[in-house]
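Technical note accompanying the year-one report. For the benefit of new consortium partners, we illustrate the data format agreed upon in the data management plan: each record pairs a sequence with a structure-token string. No post-processing was applied to the example shown here.
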Amino acid sequence: MSIPQTIKLLDIMAAVERDNNEGFCLACGILASGVEPDARGYKCDACGELGVYGAEEILIQLFG
């Protein structure tokens, strides 16, 4: 899994702590809302790619 440089680990951790169903698009780096914690490959509203992952899922993929 490759994380865009615009997404920092602290951003991912903050999204998890907010517990607001947030995730990130790994294609364009945008913060996405309404994303389940275990989301993988959801369509990004900004760029249209299937790159949206839940913040928790990103942490699991990186460190699990």
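Partners are asked to follow this layout when depositing records. The longest strand covers residues 22-25.
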